[in-house]
Amino acid sequence: MKKKVVVGLSGGVDSSVAAYLLQEQGYEVIALFMKNWHDESVTISDECPWLEDSNDAMIVADKLGIPFQTVDLSVEYKDRIVDYMFSEYQKGRTPNPDVLCNREIKFDVFMDIALSLGADYVATGHYCQKDTLVGPEGKTIHRLLGGADANKDQSYFLCQLTQDQLSKVLFPIGALQKEKVRKIAAQQDLVTANKKDSQGLCFIGKVSLPDFLQQQLKAKTGNIFDIPEHHIAYQNPQTNFASQLDMLMYNSTKKTYNPSDGKLVGSHQGAHFFTKGQRKGLGVGGTPEPLFIIDTDVNENIVYTGQGKKHPGLLRRGLLVLGDEIHWVRKDLEIKEGEQLSVMARIRYRQPLEKATLYREVNGLYVMFDSPQTAISEGQFVAWYKEEELLGSGVIS
Description:
Blueprint: E1 4-8, H1 13-24, E2 28-35, H2 50-64, E3 68-72, H3 74-90, H4 97-116, E4 121-123, E5 128-134, E6 140-146, H5 163-166, E7 169-170, H6 178-187, H7 209-213, E8 222-226, H8 244-252, E9 263-268, E10 291-297, E11 302-307, E12 315-322, E13 326-328, E14 340-346, E15 354-361, E16 364-374, E17 381-386, E18 389-395
Parallel strand pairs: 1-2, 1-4, 2-3, 4-7, 8-11
Antiparallel strand pairs: 5-6, 6-18, 8-9, 10-11, 12-16, 13-18, 14-15, 14-17, 15-16, 17-18
Helix pairs in contact: 1-2, 1-6, 3-4
C-alpha cells in the first residue's frame, strides 16, 4: 500500500517540484494550499498575492493529477503570528515571522490537518534535508541538515522543529540545487517553472512594514540622535573578570544610550517601526557616512543611530537566550548547567555560519561568538549547528 503524503503546495516552483518528485517516488500525493491572509491593503507588490498563488497551485495539481484543496488558516495565523508580531514590535523587539510560521502554522496546525486526512508524512519545498540515526538504547534520532544548495539553505527557518515533527516531514528538494529544481519544473511543463521566488512576510508577501504595523501601532513623533563612536567602548574579551559568568554577562549586555550622548539629527514617526541595523527609512541625510540604527528606546520613543556599518554600536560578541526560550532539536546533545559546547551559529537567515561557544548558566544559555556580530536584535532567533546539522535555537533576549 502506498504511503500518503500531504504537500503544502504554495504556488511556487519549489513546492511544485516537491510534489512531482514525491509522485515519481511512488507516494500517494495530496496537495493542500494554505490561505493565511486576507487583507491585501498593506501589500506594496502584486508579485505574490494569495489568489494568484492559489490558482498556480491548482494548475500544478491538475497537471500532476493529484487531489487539491484550500485550507483557510487565517484565524490561526492572525492569533499566532500577526498578533505576536505587533506585540514584539511594540516592545522594541524584532520578531522573525518565518520561523514562527513554520513552528506555529506549517508544522503544527497544517500538520494536524494533514495527519487527520490519513497522511503518513507532510512535505514542503524547503531547501533543507533530514536523516535518521539510531541513538543509545536503540532510540531513533532525526537530524535536521542544511540544504545542498548553500545559497538557498533554509534550515534556519526550521530551527524550532521538534523530533516528533521531523519524524513526519519530508523535504524532497533538499538535496537539489535551485537551478536543477527550475529545470525539472520546465521539463514537466509546470506553470511555476519561471515564477519568481516570493518575498516579504510569510504568506503575506511584500509589505511596507510601517504601514502594516500601523494597523495596530499608532504613529508617534520622536527624535533621532546620532551617537559618535567615541561614546562607545569596544568590548574587550581580554578584560579581567571575576568569573566566567561576569565575562558572559558583560559581552552579552546590550549597550544603552542617552540623548546627551549624541546629536539630534532628525525625527521619526515611531521608534517601534524601526529595528537594529536598519539603514533605509530614516529620511536623514547630510552625514559623512550613512546612518544605521544602533538602538531604539520605545519607552522614550527615541531612535539612536551611528555612522557607517562598522560603528561599534552595531557590534556585540555575545547574546543570552533565557531558559524557557532554549530549544534543542537534538535533545540528546543538550548541555547542562556549567557545561559548554563549541558550535557554528547564525543570528539571521543567509548569514554565514560563525564560530561560537555555548555556555549553559543558571539564567539561560549564552552564545559567545569568536568575532563581534552586527546588529544582534532582541526577539530574533539564534540557531546553532555542528557541521551541517542544526542542533537547536532560541529567542535572543
